[in-house]
Design goal:
Elements lengths: L1 H13 L3 H27 L1 H7 L1 H16 L6 H9 L1
């Protein structure tokens, strides 16, 4: 898991294969939320879980955004696509 996070995180930072790299990150975040935040939800309630999971939800939404939109105009993906044309 740590290796995937490091490699995919570096790819996202560089803007290289961003959409492909965001898929493992989304899976890792979903598993982390399910394994660490669901027990809090069941034992301590919704508001405690929502407070504890705010960073996880922001990372999940950010990764979903990158999956849908892509890296942007100043990424290595954009430079490679310009060279291919």
């Amino acid at each position: 898991v740590g290796s995937f996070e490091m490699v995919c995180g570096a790819l996202v930072l560089l803007g290289l294969f961003t959409r492909l790299a965001s898929i493992p990150l989304i899976v890792i975040i979903l598993v982390a939320i399910a394994s660490t935040k669901m027990p809090i939800l069941l034992n301590e309630g919704f508001w405690k879980m929502a407070h504890e999971a705010r960073t996880d939800w922001s990372m999940l939404l950010g990764a979903l955004f990158l999956l849908l939109v892509g890296a942007g105009a100043y990424s290595l993906d954009a430079c490679l696509s310009k060279r291919m044309k």
